[in-house]
Amino acid sequence: MKLDVVTIFPEYLQPLRAALLGRAIERGLIEIGVHDLRDWTYDVHRAVDDAPYGGGPGMVMKPQVWGEALDTVCTERSRLVVPTPAGTPFTQTMARAYAEEEHLVFACGRYEGIDQRVFDDAARRMPVDEVSIGDYVLVGGEAAVLVMVEAVVRLLPGVLGNPVSAEQDSFSDGLLEGPSYTRPEVWRDLPVPDVLRSGNHAHIDRWRRDQALERTYHRRPDLLERLGEADLDARDRAV
Ligand code: 6GU
């Protein structure tokens, strides 16, 4: 998979080369390009923004600069992803869909956003998604790109050491994951739950499922409402 990011803060995307993602690059599983938007300016000030039509606070990023940048970076096989608090929510389902793409291009806006015609124009040639990572406001899209790229790349075949961990994630069955324990058996007077040391794997599976249901009920009741009857068994309904 090829990933490109266009930003006025290329250094902010350095973490893409660290840890899990860095190893995925070294192993040739992904290729990441980070591009400085100002490379597509021609004036002495390298201006990327201008005052908004209609007035109001802040500045809007100029369409000419973004247009040339995207003309260079995108192909007819790209999907353009625009991080914005005004976007549709980024979910695990979208991460799974993005993991099937051959080329993702992220356009990081700052200020009050990017002239809308940039995306209207790009949408004539490629799919364009305006996406939010949550109900809060960031200064720019860079941190959101780090989040989305990590969520997508860990799903690519060969990236995680143990693919079962991706299959058992929170959200993979529509529930939050329950608690985990390791040695010692008692720590600061707190014991590991007996069932986990019982060796009875039917009991352990049932206990984990119940913990996931209870945690989801308390922390994310909205997720339980989205589960169909088909996703719950008779014992689930009793919890
Ligand atoms: Cl994707 N971008 C920005 N700038 N702010 C956000 C966001 C994205 N998601 C939530 N807040």
TrEMBL record:
Domain of life: Bacteria
Pfam family, one: tRNA_m1G_MT
GO biological process: tRNA N1-guanine methylation
Name under which the protein is recorded: tRNA (guanine-N(1)-)-methyltransferase
Reactions listed under catalytic activity: guanosine(37) in tRNA + S-adenosyl-L-methionine = N(1)-methylguanosine(37) in tRNA + S-adenosyl-L-homocysteine + H(+)
Keywords: Cytoplasm, Methyltransferase, S-adenosyl-L-methionine, Transferase, tRNA processing
Biological role stated in the UniProt entry: Specifically methylates guanosine-37 in various tRNAs.
Sequence positions that bind S-adenosyl-L-methionine: G109, I133, G134, D135, Y136, V137, L138
EC number(s) on file: 2.1.1.228
Subcellular location: Cytoplasm
